[in-house]
Design a protein that fits this description.
It contains three helices and three strands. It is mostly helical. Helix 1 runs parallel beside helix 3. The longest helix is centred in the first third of the chain and has 24 residues. It is globular.
């Protein structure tokens, strides 16, 4: 795969497009993200009376969507979300909207 320049370029373009889309959708849900040049976003759960990142992680896991809490790295109330395929990204946003609404 490292010698497949077409695949690498397609992967980089995919991540760039969907990282921007995902950051925008998360912001619309009230979950700002840190600037990123990687294949993941760090979504921040504001320190309010809203639900926590830890609760969101459990809720998403119950729907088969795996994200990573970053508390072991000393970052509270944030989730590390890998940029996935289109249907995975859309499912994540739909599930987070359900979580936050519930």
């Amino acid at each position: 795969a490292l010698n497949d320049d077409g695949f690498i370029e397609a992967s980089l373009q995919h991540v760039a497009v969907w990282r921007a889309w995902l950051a925008e959708q998360l912001a619309k849900l009230g979950l700002p993200t840190c600037p990123s040049a990687t294949n993941f976003l760090l979504a921040r759960f504001p320190d309010t009376d809203r639900k926590s990142a830890r609760e969101a992680e459990r809720f998403l896991a119950g729907r088969g969507i795996l994200v990573r809490g970053v508390l072991p790295y000393g970052i509270t109330d944030s989730l590390r979300i890998t940029i996935g395929l289109e249907h995975e990204n859309r499912a994540l946003i739909a599930a987070l909207a359900d979580f936050l609404a519930g």
